Amino acid sequence: MFWKKFDLKKVKGEGVIIKGDPYTHKSRWWNYILLATVFWRKIWVLEIRTNRPSFRLVCVQEGEGICRIYRKSIYEKIIRVGVRREDCCFFAIDDDGGEIPVVVLERNLDRNTEAYSDLLIV
User: Fold this and answer.
1) b vs e for 25-40, b when ≥16 Cβ sit within 10 Å of the residue's Cβ?
2) Fold for domain 3-116?
3) According to the lineage, what is the superkingdom (predicted)?
4) Less Cβ around it within 10 Å: N or C end of the chain?
């Protein structure tokens, strides 16, 4: 749906590691919308440091070795990331495949935190 497979060999994959939440549901291709809207209880707020107008977000699920890229280009420089059950590493790439620095602004916030409610959640 929103994520597709990605070949990690194309980049270094040095990003932000987010430890999983054992109390949330396991991530599957078919339950993403439920996870993003209901089941992810915690979020991290990330800033993508780039001058480019858009970028793509990549997620590597630790332990399972699954690497996926967000299907759509993202135009906001600050985004929310839901804490999945699995440990994950998130990094960003530009349209040319170059890696973009990712900085953590906030960790383990309640998903309903008013201050960041208008940001895209991935």
Assistant:
1) eebeeeeeeebeeebb
2) Immunoglobulin-like (2.60.40)
3) Bacteria
4) N
Residue 49 structure tokens: 């440091």
The pTM of the full predicted model, rounded to 2 decimals, is 0.82
d(CA 107, CA 81) in angstroms, rounded, equals: 10
Reduced DSSP (H G I as helix, E B as strand, rest coil) percent helix, strand, coil of the chain, to 5: 10, 40, 50
| Amino acid code (one letter) for 79 | I
Query: Which sequence spans correspond to the domains of the chain?
Result: 3-116
Torsion of CA 26, 30, 31, 36, to 10 degrees: 110
Residues near 18 by Cβ (< 8 Å), separated by ≥ 6?
Answer: 44, 81, 83, 84, 87, 88, 89, 90
Which residues are within 8 A (CB) of 80 and not within 5 positions of it... i.e. 6 or more apart? 43, 44, 45, 46, 116, 119, 120, 121, 122
pLDDT digits (tens, 9 = 90+) for 41-91: 888 899 999 998 988 888 877 666 778 888 888 998 999 888 888 888 888
